[in-house]
Amino acid sequence: EVNEVLDDTIEAIYSIHDQVVNLLNKKIPINEMIHQVVLPEHLKNKSHLQFLYSRPEFAVYNIYRWYHGYFDFNPAHLLPRPDYEINDEIFSLIGNKEKILVRTKQLMSEDKHQLALQVLDVLLQYDKENIESRELRIQILKKLQREDYCLMSRNTWTYFINQDKKFLSKKEES
């Protein structure tokens, strides 16, 4: 049994590594790569390979940076402006908080919570004080948290839920 656990773990690590190298050679961007790298089918349901502490996406990032460094072949990312500046520009093109909130809710209803979180972030970067955005983000993060068994990402969701709750609580007090 110990040999099986070790062999499976080694195979999983090599598989993730080799997939990343293959995708690097094809110049696949990291934000696409993390969605393409998967464990081999015969390893997916092994109880000793469940993602309770970390997850393959995190390994993909580490392997990518090990071989590739920080640059992702997108010239816009070579010397990027801060997210808040980019999101301010995007928001000025949209020009309406309500459009972002409506679209975020639509994405949530389509069970696209990660995408909803990223769309909502345009508004949150533009207006960190927006109460409805914070309330909505709590809903999204709770959904992501409920479906996530990985301690690292689950704790991240929890941390930001608690941060938003503290923010809202302070807003109510003032």
Kindly summarize this structure in a few lines:
The chain has helices spanning 2-25, 30-36, 56-68, 83-94, 97-109, 113-126, 131-146, 151-173. By secondary structure, it is mostly helical.
Descriptive report:
This protein is mainly alpha-helical. It folds into two domains: 2-72, no CATH class; 81-173, Serine Threonine Protein Phosphatase 5, Tetratricopeptide repeat, CATH 1.25.40. The chain has eight helices and no strands. The chain starts with a helix and ends with a helix. The model has no long low-confidence stretch (mean pLDDT 95).
Task: Please specify the SSE layout and strand pairing.
Blueprint: H1 2-25, H2 30-36, H3 56-68, H4 83-94, H5 97-109, H6 113-126, H7 131-146, H8 151-173
Helix pairs in contact: 1-3, 2-3, 4-6, 5-6, 5-7, 6-7, 7-8
